[in-house]
Automatic annotation (TrEMBL):
Keyword Signal listed: yes
Name of the molecule in the record: Chemokine interleukin-8-like domain-containing protein
SUPFAM superfamilies on file: Interleukin 8-like chemokines
Any one Gene Ontology cellular component term annotated for this protein: extracellular space
Any one GO BP annotation for this protein: immune response
Pfam families: IL8
GO molecular function, one term: chemokine activity
Organism field: Pangasianodon hypophthalmus (Striped catfish)
Secretion signal, residue range per the UniProt entry: 1-22
Length: 81
């Protein structure tokens, strides 16, 4: 009886360990890293403060640009050249 409780407890710990390892992977697919609509205008280079490439898991590739007016502006590659 004691041995079955030990195995039950170890199985519970194993399940919890597997579940906690899967949680960080979920944070990689945050929608904040992806763009779903894109700015079509031109951005003056002097206004660009930061540029981040969208994640490889995103359906549409692009860049997230930070300007003084906009903190997350999605653009295609040609828009920032």
């Amino acid at each position: 009886m004691k041995m079955s409780r030990v195995f039950l407890f170890l199985g519970f710990v194993l399940i919890m360990a597997l579940y906690s390892d899967a949680s960080p992977l979920a944070s990689l697919t945050q929608p904040e890293d992806c763009c779903f609509s894109f700015f079509k205008g031109k951005i003056p280079p002097q206004n660009i403060q930061e540029v981040k490439k969208t994640g490889s898991h995103c359906s549409q590739q692009g860049f997230i640009v930070t300007t003084p007016k906009f903190s997350n502006l999605c653009v295609h590659e040609v828009a920032i050249k």
